[in-house]
Design a protein that fits this description.
This protein is an all-alpha fold. It has one domain (2-168). Helix content is 72%, strand content 0%. It contains 5 helices and no strands. The chain has helices spanning 2-5, 15-41, 49-70, 86-111, 125-168. Helix 2 (15-41) packs antiparallel against helix 5 (125-168).
Length: 171
């Protein structure tokens, strides 16, 4: 019966059970954070930046707990270290993503799947003044933040934790 849960070769919980525990832990931490914020604020808008920030926080906490107690490894073992190559890694990731998204945008534009008529502040810049231009920068910043936190939790939780655990098995 013990062999069902513990890998006899490594003495650790089997990969499948570790994945299940991570998923349950993520769900529990997310639920506690979401309910807590809803209780404090009275509501939590679906798909809001705050909601995605809570998902990023819960995934980070889940990975910290799982790495320490299930895998008995540090976060550095995931490749998360701040050294002279970290900035280059971040910049190359952002650049690769931007090139990919721009490529998809221009492909859809070229095939007629989308139509670009301009930015909001192009419509009547004299009448709108700097208010729209300022809010356009705020919106762009919010979108960049949301993209960064979604990328963070997706890479950290799915790629670094679940997929690496699954690949390193045995389940």
């Amino acid at each position: 019966m013990k062999a069902t849960f513990i890998n006899p070769d490594t003495g650790r919980i089997r990969a499948g059970w570790r994945i299940l525990i991570c998923l349950l832990l993520m769900a529990l931490i997310s639920a506690v954070l979401m309910v807590g914020i809803r209780t404090i604020l009275g509501s939590l808008r679906k798909d809001s930046t705050l909601q995605w920030s809570l998902v990023a926080l819960s995934s980070t906490l889940t990975v910290l707990i799982a790495r320490k107690y299930l895998d008995k490894k540090s976060m550095v073992s995931l490749g998360l270290r701040w050294d002279k190559y970290a900035i280059l890694d971040i910049l190359s990731g952002v650049l690769n993503s931007a090139v990919l998204m721009a490529g998809v945008f221009f492909l859809m534009l070229w095939t007629g799947l989308i139509e670009f008529k301009g930015f909001t502040f192009w419509q009547d810049p004299e009448a709108l003044g700097t208010v729209i231009q300022t809010s356009a920068w705020l919106i762009a910043g919010a979108v960049a933040y949301k993209l960064a936190i979604v990328a963070w939790w997706e890479e950290l939780f799915l790629e670094a934790t679940l997929f690496k655990t699954w690949l390193k098995g045995p389940i």
